[in-house]
Amino acid sequence: MARKALKLASWTSVALAASGICLYSNKYLDPSDFGAVRVGRAVATTAVISYDYLTSLKSVPYGSEEYLQLRSKIHDLFLSFDDTPLGAASLAQVHKAVLRDGRTVAVKVQHPKVQAQSSKDVLLMEVLVLAVKQLFPEFEFMWLVDEAKKNLPLELDFLNEGRNAEKVAQMLKYFDFLKVPRIYWELSTRRVLLMEFVDGGQVNDRNYMERNKIDVNEISRHLGRLYSEMIFVNGFVHCDPHPGNVLVRKRPDTGKVEIVLLDHGLYQALTEEFRLDYCRLWQALIWTDMQGVRKYGQRLGAGDLYPLFACMLTARSWDAVNRGIGQTPVTATEDSEIRNHAANYLPQISQLLNRVPRQLLLIFKTNDLLRGIEAALGTRASASSFLNMSRCCIKALAAHKKQKTRSLFRRARISLRESFSLWKINLHELVLHMKGLRLTGWLRALLCWLLPASH
Q1: Residues forming beta bridges with residue 107, ordered by sequence position
Q2: H helix or E strand, kind and range, residue 183
Q3: Is the CB of residue 236 less than 8 Å from the CB of residue 230?
Q4: Residues whose CB is less than 8 angstroms from the CB of residue 343 and which lie 6 or more positions away in sequence, other chains included
Q5: pLDDT class for 259, splitting at 50, 70, 90?
Q6: Model-level pTM?
Q7: CA 392 – CA 395 distance, rounded (Å)
Q8: Which position among 30, 52, 121, 240 bears the catalytic label?
Q9: pLDDT, tens digit, for every residue of 99-119?
Q10: 3-state class of 87 per DSSP?
Q11: Does the annotation mark 289 as catalytic?
Q12: Distances in Å between the alpha carbon of 140 and those of 137, 208, 350, 353, 409?
């Protein structure tokens, strides 16, 4: 079984795992998105806002002074409102508007009937998945339905999205390159979210970055640090980083490069046990510790399919994983081989996705979207991104160990080891930046001694 898994894993990538997740990421298309219903939707947007505010009047005595004041506020809310949306998806669309007090805002409005239609969409998905199961017993996609039932109600509650935005902004406030738009709670409801308007170019728009003299490598490093911190250190992960939700810009006041993170409806909260095992697995992958890859892959539910699991996480062949994903660059030949052979192993991928912890499903989607951005920027699978991941893993594991002991001496030892490990990574990164990356024999030997396989 292990030999068979090794062979099939050589041709597998996370892109194929995403073939199932892609069904989920399309977010249950609302039938009202098609045909004549789309006509006039922008015009009706302000009416939807008014309706949501007016429903809040149910708790206010009809005809009272408070009622009249609130109703007047609704009608006088906007100084201007752009009918043409900045962006539209299956659940909502976003408009630019100016409030009466002069604040420029982004207004996210849920499409009419989405709430009522969502339960039908999930039911239809469940019927289709069961039908596929009857026709092809080897395919296991019921996890798609389970995830939809769990996540769709959260995505439809825009107040939950606002809370997520504030939580991640506070959690990562030490990143001066991160911008999360402010939420205007006094003007938001479950179906309408008003937030600070922030302009910028999409993160995969190289032409925009060239025009604005933004370094794509800097953006890639920032994005890697941002998501590594979310996944490995905090365990609270923004799971929809498609280019429309990640903008880049130069701050008007300082001119510094900034990443703007939008759409906070879909987050994954990781348990501590899962987060730590995931840390250890990535450490093993980065430092080519194959025993660790097997151990922690199996602990995360992969069983004998741990080679396939490693390939799905890294989007690399098993041969590249064995040689070191941080040491061997991605080639067009490797990508072509993966695409040409991956479809043969859909049953095994389906089996694996059905057995791993549910927390991993959105992580797969997140990893795939981030790799798409790196590919667009030409920075895919850079050694720097892997080293940033390793730094976060070291920090997370050290913090866990310090929490488990009350001994000041042991805590000091853990901190010393953490500092030494981070110094080793800095040294390794310095070497990689040496001109031509041509290391002398003695320096190679030094690195082999300083950077043993991580357990």
Answers
A1: 95, 194
A2: none
A3: yes
A4: 16
A5: very high
A6: 0.76
A7: 5
A8: 240
A9: 988 899 999 988 777 777 777
A10: strand
A11: no
A12: 7, 42, 5, 8, 50
